[in-house]
Amino acid sequence: MKARIVTLPGDGIGPEVTAAAVDVLRSVAARSGHDFAFDEHPIGGVAIDLYSDPLPPPTLVACRNADAVLLGAVGGPRWSDPKSKTRPEQGLLSLRAGLGVYANLRPVRVHPRLAALSPLKNEKLAGVDILFVRELTGGAYFGAKTRSLRQATDETKYTVAEIERVVRRAFHLAQGRRRHVTSVDKANVLETSRLWRETVSRVAAEFPDVDLEHQLVDSMAMLLLTRPSAYDVVVTENLFGDILTDEAAALAGSLGLLPSASLGDGRAGLYEPIHGSAPDIAGRNAANPLGAILSAAMLLRHSLTLDEEADAVERAVETVIARGALTADLGGKATTRDVTAAVIDALDRDASTQEAA
């Protein structure tokens, strides 16, 4: 297979973890006979420094013409003034809107070796395997905004069509998992949530083989910590999803472990680890690359339909964790490059085992 992959290393540790993911993808391509071409472009703070624009037009054009986009991270102290009219995060929001990627997928699993890193008791973590599906291009982040000396407003707006498309994606994904969807809203207070709940309930009728439950977001925040293994696919709106997925990251023990995929109607998607730019460790070869590498596995699966290769990368990461090749955030002493090399070695060993079988 030939594929053109745009890389957006971004800021802080973004270039380091993106380089790790690219190394793994190159290894996959070489082993499986694929031809992956990589095309790097600026985004975020580095793009502001170069072009006074967090998403320069050539970057967006390149992303729209790619088979997939791999993003590192954006932001940092030098661009953190909340009063600034130009911020790195604006580039990310504009990219999501420009690509039409409306469904953000964030899987959360707990590796037994890392359970002790979670603030929850180990017995709460057994069997945790949640897929969050967050609506990504609507809600308060994209609504009209006003600001005066004495007040500010952020409009939260959703259309039926916006809700339907992300909810259908969640139900389709649930059909390939444990066939259970939890929809999270605030329907006891918010009108947008009432529309959300009504729409979800109607769409659910199209999927009689999938069970549906509704949860209020405040209750869900508690239940994620008290019975996380009870959930399969969780679908919610943009703001609630942003908060709940970061909370759920604590289950896995580190933000550095968790990948994400942002998908639209076509195959092309945006893939990124959920952690931030971590400027305090940038350039020190200390960043955890596993979230970026697992994001590359999602890229293989969802945009390139290379399921076997994606499975192989995920097995390699599991092997590396089990063997204890861990960065400092996971209690280890391995460097970014050490972990990347260990994943590639595990891929090689896995390939040899598969051939022998």
Summarize the structure.
By secondary structure, the chain is α/β, with parallel strands linked by helices. The chain has helices spanning 14-32, 45-51, 57-64, 88-99, 122-125, 160-175, 191-204, 217-226, 238-252, 290-302, 307-323, 336-356; strands spanning 2-10, 35-40, 68-73, 103-109, 129-135, 145-147, 152-154, 180-185, 211-216, 233-236, 261-263, 269-271.
Low-confidence stretches: none
Arithmetic mean pLDDT: 95
- Estimate the global geometry from the Cα principal axes: globular
Quickly give the structural class: alpha/beta
User: CATH homologous superfamily of the largest domain - what is it?
Assistant: Isopropylmalate Dehydrogenase
| First-to-last CA distance | 24 Å
CATH topology of the largest domain: Isopropylmalate Dehydrogenase
CATH architecture of the largest domain: 3-Layer(aba) Sandwich
Order of helices and strands: EHEHHEHEHEEEHEHEHEHEEHHH
Write up what this structure looks like:
This protein is α/β, with parallel strands linked by helices and 357 residues long. The protein contains twelve helices and twelve strands. The strands form two sheets. A ten-stranded mixed beta sheet has the order 2-1-3-12-11-4-5-10-8-9, with helices on both faces. A two-stranded antiparallel ribbon has the order 6-7. Helix 1 (14-32) packs parallel to helix 12, helix 6 (160-175) packs across helix 7 (191-204) and helix 11 crosses helix 12 (336-356). The longest helix is centred in the C-terminal third of the chain and has 21 residues, at 336-356. The radius of gyration is 20 Å and the shape is globular.
